[in-house]
């Protein structure tokens, strides 16, 4: 494990995304035998490889982790553990922890590359964003030993959103406008509540939310989808990449679909029980769109020139690409100087363990290719 | 120019794509001051940097090339010239030359990376394809000094098609089916000839071809678009990437839109003059689709399991994503094990100098990041 060509990988989080990632890593390790998995840590347990002996098994990690008696590692412990290993280390953060996100600059400055779907690092304060930019490797930056930072799955899961925007910018294009549907849950809800083909009207709003919850398409508490914050976080990430220094999700209009009366209701169950009382409001929104020959969708927009972000309900022509979405698909359209008549559009599943892990694994491959 | 960190770049072709690429390279050189442009060669002239002195100017290259009295370099001369430079060399082939494509293995084996939009290298014989694969760098291959090979713009110009397919495969997804519209010219022709919104019927076929030709959307001889070979080449590239060893564009059904009677007509002008005689055929195709409530489009398909490729006219539902294309957009849908309900879709301008050059420049950045 001490060969200079070894790449040491620590994985935080072993739930939906983490499990899929480790399965993809197992496939990858046949192509890159220099990969050494040295740490898996989840909420209650952790598993560490003994330094300079053998890496963790990608075949039996789940059983080994379950049998482990070591508690989860703190961020400080993780940093110390990786810091003691020789060069070429990667932290794969499959959590959504703000604590871990806050520590990226510390990892990067130690030359540890970071790969993550965790939105928090890029959508919290501008200070953290700036600190991450300054701590990650750039050509001809003062500190050439800094780690690489990749986060494809922080927007649209495995869809090529971040990489495409990165390429547009790096090759000198000017992005004028970004628009899209950034939440698989809200896509699913509106595609069913107000189908574009007019074949069916869709049920009441509370029925659709209930069906989506039962099908596993929402967070355990659907208010975590309906408040629009997840979409706002993704917009902040894209906006900052194109140079709009937005301070956070609180600094632009984000429409919440939670009735104000239900914001303080205690449990998710109590919320679901009372949601039907407010169906009339969403019905009016739907009917108004129908009267105009349109459909209602939950859209996020970045207007780069005006430095303006916006998240909320919009009425769209039925021929609009957003109106024609299906299932829980995301769609992102980049309007640029080069893609001027029609945008560059990426569309497909934007949530789920396998596709989110795919973005993480693809990022890891890029790190391996660059540090090998 | 002899620093170990220098990256020497030779550019073949200085027409539509080449000119845009050199303009993007100029922007890039501010971020990567270790880039040295050492050769530009076009059909009749070439410009070389003196070894170990100063690189060519990215500001005045066009004037300098026009004033040059050196003839174009042969492939052998180009290989010798780059071979004499120290490590870290990139050949950027912006031509569509089969000769140059045939020589990629020789460049790669000398450790020279190749970046290109040239379809010929990847859609000619399987022998050339195999030779390029075996000559380009792979981790743990026997020859670690081989060059890197990137060709994003060989399909869909700057759209992230090749990189997305590469990521899907590398992360362990199984691609089942690829379908799309792969020709900007044929997209434009059919979007106008048979609009999906039914608002206008479109003109006669020969009128639409004439309009497209006058607007600069076709090759000088429109038969080079109408024969379907360009689409077939792109399908061959994608099919081989997913492991379908198709021998070439002649080994699967490719529908030509050139009336058999006009195949041997001498000039493009004579062809255009007589095309109207055959409008009735395309009119019947359009009417048949209309009767079925559909629209006609020129589609390419790869069925991975059946190892079957197909290029030609298809009747599609008006709600199909292909039917809703606009302008000269390309669209590519990947149906995979992970993107199973709905495909991963990429859409946008698939032709034009600036967007084609963008794919080349983005590839070059990846090479620079990996060899730096």
From TrEMBL, chains A, B:
UniProt: NADP(+) binding residues: 13-18
Binding site for L-homoserine: 219
KW Protein biosynthesis (keyword) present: no
Keywords (A to Z) from UniProt: Amino-acid biosynthesis, Methionine biosynthesis, NADP, Oxidoreductase, Threonine biosynthesis
Active site: residue positions: 234
Cofactor needs: a metal cation
EC number(s) per entry: 1.1.1.3
Keyword Amino-acid biosynthesis: yes
Domain Homoserine dehydrogenase catalytic: 160-365
Gene3D superfamilies linked to this entry: Dihydrodipicolinate Reductase, domain 2 (3.30.360.10), NAD(P)-binding Rossmann-like Domain (3.40.50.720)
Binding site for NADPH: 95, 119
Catalytic activity: L-homoserine + NADP(+) = L-aspartate 4-semialdehyde + NADPH + H(+)
Pfam families: Homoserine_dh, NAD_binding_3
Protein name: Homoserine dehydrogenase
Species name: Imshaugia aleurites
Phylogenetic placement of the source organism: Eukaryota, Fungi, Dikarya, Ascomycota, Pezizomycotina
């Amino acid at each position: 494990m001490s060969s200079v060509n070894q790449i040491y990988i620590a994985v935080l989080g072993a739930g939906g995304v983490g499990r899929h990632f480790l399965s993809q890593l197992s496939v990858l390790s046949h192509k890159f035998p220099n990969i050494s998995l040295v740490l898996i840590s989840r909420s209650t347990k952790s598993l560490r490889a003994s330094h300079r002996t053998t890496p963790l098994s990608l075949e039996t990690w789940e059983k080994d982790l379950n049998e482990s008696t070591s508690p989860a590692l703190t961020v400080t412990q993780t940093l110390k553990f990786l810091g003691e290993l020789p060069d070429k280390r990667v932290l794969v953060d499959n959590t959504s922890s703000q604590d871990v996100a806050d520590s990226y600059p510390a990892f990067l400055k130690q030359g540890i590359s970071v790969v993550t779907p965790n939105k928090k690092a890029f959508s919290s304060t501008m200070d953290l964003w700036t600190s991450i930019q300054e701590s990650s490797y750039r050509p001809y930056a003062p500190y050439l030993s800094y780690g690489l930072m990749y986060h494809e799955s922080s927007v649209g899961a495995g869809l090529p959103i971040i990489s495409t925007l990165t390429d547009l910018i790096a090759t000198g294009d000017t992005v004028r406008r970004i628009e899209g549907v950034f939440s698989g849950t809200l896509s699913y809800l509106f595609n069913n509540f107000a189908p574009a083909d007019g074949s069916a009207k869709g049920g009441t709003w509370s029925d659709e939310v209930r069906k989506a919850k039962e099908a596993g398409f929402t967070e355990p508490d659907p208010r975590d989808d309906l408040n629009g914050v997840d979409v706002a976080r993704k917009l902040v990430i894209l906006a900052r990449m194109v140079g709009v220094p937005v301070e956070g999700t609180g600094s632009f209009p984000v429409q919440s679909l939670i009735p104000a009366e239900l914001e303080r209701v205690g449990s998710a169950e109590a919320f679901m029980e009372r949601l039907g009382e407010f169906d009339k409001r969403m019905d009016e929104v739907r009917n108004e769109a129908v009267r105009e020959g349109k459909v209602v969708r939950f859209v996020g927009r970045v207007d780069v020139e005006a430095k303006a972000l916006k998240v909320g309900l919009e009425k769209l022509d039925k021929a609009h690409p957003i109106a024609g979405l299906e299932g829980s698909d995301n769609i992102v359209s980049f309007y640029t100087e080069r893609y001027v008549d029609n945008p560059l559009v990426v569309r497909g599943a934007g949530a789920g363990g396998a596709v989110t892990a795919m973005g993480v694994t693809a990022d890891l491959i890029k790190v391996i290719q660059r540090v090998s």
